[in-house]
Design brief:
The chain has 67 residues and is of the alpha+beta class. It is built from 1 helix and 3 strands, in the order βββα. The chain has one domain. The N and C termini lie close together (11 Å).
Length: 67
């Protein structure tokens, strides 16, 4: 679960995902902003995942970590 920071800045809604730098969006409505943040967050996590797997190479293991 992630935290979205939302702010109305006429005429726009702007938002950020608190836990992931670089995930920010701007939309005309709050509903569209939330949807854009979800899409952008999903894309950012996929890019980060792919980069981590590429860096790890062939011989690695995974571990789930809860905080």
């Amino acid at each position: 679960m992630f935290t979205a920071i939302l702010k109305k800045s006429d005429p726009w809604w702007i938002g950020w995902i608190e836990e992931v730098p670089g995930v920010n969006c701007q939309e005309k409505t709050k509903e569209k902003l939330i949807e854009s943040l979800k899409v952008t967050l999903k894309e950012a996590l996929e890019i980060n995942r792919n980069e981590a797997l590429k860096e790890a190479g062939d011989d690695f293991e995974t571990e789930l970590i809860a905080v």
